[in-house]
Design a protein that fits this description.
This protein is α/β, with parallel strands linked by helices. It has 13 helices and eight strands. Strand 7, helix 12 and strand 8 form a beta-alpha-beta unit. The model has no long low-confidence stretch (mean pLDDT 95). One of its GO terms (cellular component) is cytosol. One of its GO terms (molecular function) is oxidoreductase activity. InterPro entries: Cys_rich_dom (IPR004017).
């Protein structure tokens, strides 16, 4: 894809409802790249929670609405690997028996990008002019890494931040235990996975963990706060916007 002049923002539910500062940080970073931004006010959920829960008809209705909202966009950027994975892969399942919708889904999916993927692979940018003083470690979220194959892009962007030192944790690609409804259905397993993740974070000796999906980060932040651990939690957009 050639560098677009205008980007349409898809802000997923958890950022819109609970962590709006992440969306604002993403806007700052994209505006620094000289891009014009759109935000369709009628956008809603991509349908992933319904899809994962087995409610395919409900998920298809939400997916159809997503296509209606974003079909004419030049490029769509979202601060969530899991939502982009839903659009790029599972929409094809939802519309497998509807040729017209399947064609629309393929065209829209081809221009829907996760935030760091867009910066590095589409814009060709690894230095966004950010400064953040301190050591951080990075968590690979499952859908972003395994579903979209995004691994090096976030690390390249963090490496371009002045004053920041990236310290890799052991098994950074291991699930944190969130998994959306998984954490509610299987709390014991979820907590055990999170225990391991936090131990690996603490072993780095850093005071901050960075990721690209607020679901994972919210999950980690919950236990960190309950245990009053000296670790801050950041979406990568906040780091790249220069916010400490």
């Amino acid at each position: 894809m050639t560098k677009p002049k205008r980007v349409t923002l898809f802000i997923q539910c958890i950022v819109d409802s609970c962590f709006p500062a992440v969306g604002e940080a993403m806007v700052k970073v994209l505006e620094r790249q000289g891009l014009a931004l759109d935000y369709p006010a009628n956008q809603t959920c991509c349908g992933q929670p319904a899809f994962n829960g087995g409610y395919r008809d409900e998920a298809a209705r939400l997916a159809s609405h997503y296509l209606d909202v974003f079909e004419d966009a030049e490029a769509i950027v979202c601060p969530s690997g899991s939502c982009v994975h839903m659009v790029r892969h599972h929409y094809m399942e939802l519309f497998a028996k509807d040729p017209r919708q399947l064609d629309r889904a393929r065209r829209v999916a081809a221009k829907t990008f996760e935030f760091t993927e867009f910066l590095v692979d589409v814009l060709g940018v690894t230095d966004v002019g950010a400064t953040w003083n301190g050591q951080v470690t990075y968590h690979d979220s499952c859908h972003l890494l395994r579903g979209l194959g995004v691994k090096d892009q976030p690390r390249a962007l963090l490496s371009g931040v002045r004053g920041l030192t990236l310290v890799e944790m052991t098994r950074s690609d291991e699930c944190c235990g969130f998994g959306g409804t998984f954490s509610a259905k299987y709390p014991e397993i979820s907590e055990a996975l999170l225990e391991t993740k936090l131990a690996n974070i603490q072993a780095t000796g850093t005071g901050a963990v960075v990721g690209c999906d607020m679901g994972c980060l919210m999950h980690m932040q919950g236990m960190i706060r309950r245990r009053e651990l000296p670790i801050s939690v950041h979406h990568i957009a906040e780091i790249l916007a220069g916010e400490e």
